[in-house]
Specification:
458 residues, 32 strands, 16% helix, alpha/beta, rod-shaped, 4 helices
Length: 458
């Protein structure tokens, strides 16, 4: 019988290998854990870096947008929904475009910026209604969204207030003796006198030549240039507001006329247009080549509506003579003439074209303020005198040619002048009895007072 060996060495064979393998497994696990932990730490560090970069982009963008908003006074921020000048982006923070920022401007109760939505009570406390397009409390939110790698996105916000300041219409009241809707040249010894002896040009005003005198103001909407010996009793300044010059057209004053001097050379009663006068007709008129004229002998005292040009020389010498002209063409006056308005509206002359009071003219409304209204340009020169108010609309002659269909209120006659001038030793006296000229200056777009309040993390 064989007895088995009880050698202990043989019973522990392979234990060391198993132990080594177990140890290697533990070490491998530890190594793997350390590696995974290291990767997590690296990833967390990268994420922190991306977060910091995205936040820096958002804050940089917010500061840039704030600067533009505070400088701007013309943009309705909520209506435009964009940052002035730079827009909403996206904009790059760095040259490579790794980090960017963009903007949103929304109402402070826009449901899109709240999660969860605010309640009705919360809207009420804000003074709002929960509607994105209805800004009741004048507050908005400027959102700057910074982005980085791996879809990193950070939103920082600031609260804005924007108060609209309306540019309301204004009204000015004035009563000048001379009103030109354009440039005015004053040469020689001009005298504009009386209680309302004011002169205004809605363009530039130039006074040169001999000394002159104005009892009131001399103003221009454009540039005012005057020599040193120009005596002005009131304000003398350029850059002043415009004064309204009405649309001047002869047809508006047809109702004042007694007689019509037609374009065909006939005379009609204004009460029966189209019927030529056959008896009791006014005397003193001559018609030739489409123009009416009176020389020497004074025409019958009346208010005449002339469908063309009219010239008068050396007529109306009696200060009791009432004669008014309303012409669809130009009016030229010369010689020693003296008139006063014939109608109760105090209209002395109306011209769809130009009005020239010639070298020796002495046209004067005695003891009453009359009106001279000119659609194109005006020239008063020589030794002319006039009591009342003179207005010229200053329409360019090339744009004012009569056309029955396209321009029925244009000039039916000759273009005489290209500039508005007061020249020579003239005197215009105005006492202010014709009433003020009211000028409505319409309001412009509103301006905005923008302010930036505290930060808002979202």
């Amino acid at each position: 019988m064989t007895t088995p060996s009880l050698n202990p060495v043989h019973s522990e064979k392979g234990i060391a290998l198993i132990a080594v393998l177990l140890l290697l497994g533990v070490l491998a696990g530890l190594t793997t854990g350390l590696a995974l932990s290291g990767q997590t730490e690296v990833s967390m560090a990268s994420n922190e870096m991306y977060y910091a970069g995205a936040r820096a982009a958002a804050e940089a963008g917010l500061n840039r947008a704030t600067e533009q908003i505070l400088l701007d006074t013309t943009t309705e921020l909520l209506g435009a929904g964009a940052v002035p000048v730079i827009g909403n982006g996206p904009h790059n923070l760095d040259a490579a475009g790794t980090y960017t920022y963009r903007f949103e401007i929304v109402d402070d109760d826009d449901p899109a910026v709240y999660d969860p939505d605010l309640t009705e009570d919360q809207w009420t406390l804000m003074g709002e209604n929960g509607l994105a397009d209805s800004n009741i409390n004048q507050r908005m939110i400027l959102r700057a969204i910074g982005t980085g790698p791996r879809n990193t996105e950070i939103i920082v916000s600031r609260i804005l207030t924007s108060v609209a300041i309306p540019d309301l219409p204004t009204t000015t009241v004035s009563d000048p003796a001379i009103l030109i809707n354009g440039d005015l040249y004053m040469h020689g010894n001009n005298k504009i006198l009386g209680a309302e002896g004011n002169v205004h040009a809605n363009g530039d005003l130039t006074k040169d030549g001999a000394s002159g005198e104005v009892s009131g103001d001399v103003t221009a909407t454009g540039t005012l240039t005057a020599n040193d010996n120009f005596e002005v009793g009131g304000t003398m300044a350029g850059g002043m507001p415009s004064i309204n010059v009405p649309n001047i057209q002869a047809a508006d004053y047809f109702g004042l006329a007694d007689w019509v001097l037609t374009e065909t050379g006939t005379i009609e009663s204004a009460s029966t247009p189209g019927v030529s006068c056959t008896s009791g007709c006014p005397s003193g008129w001559t018609f030739e080549s489409g123009s009416w004229s009176a020389t020497g002998s004074m025409p019958t005292s009346a208010t005449y509506y002339v469908k063309g040009d009219v010239t008068m020389k050396g007529v109306g010498k009696s200060e009791l003579t009432g004669l008014s002209l309303i012409a669809e063409g130009s009016i030229t006056l010369s010689g020693n003439s003296q008139f006063k308005p014939e109608n109760t509206s105090q209209i002395q002359f109306v011209a769809n074209g130009d009005l020239s009071m010639g070298v020796d003219a002495d046209v004067e409304a005695i003891n009453v303020d009359g009106q001279i209204l000119v659609r194109e340009q005006l020239k008063i020169h020589g030794n002319a005198t006039f009591q009342g108010r003179v207005m010229a609309q200053d329409i360019d002659g090339d744009d004012n040619v009569w056309d029955a269909v396209n321009n029925p209120n244009g000039r039916r006659g000759t273009n005489v002048l290209d500039t508005n001038e007061l020249d020579g030793t003239i005197t215009v006296t105005y006492e202010g009895s014709l009433g003020d000229i009211v000028t409505e200056i319409p309001g412009g777009p509103p301006t905005y007072n923008n302010n930036v309040l505290g930060w808002l993390e979202q």
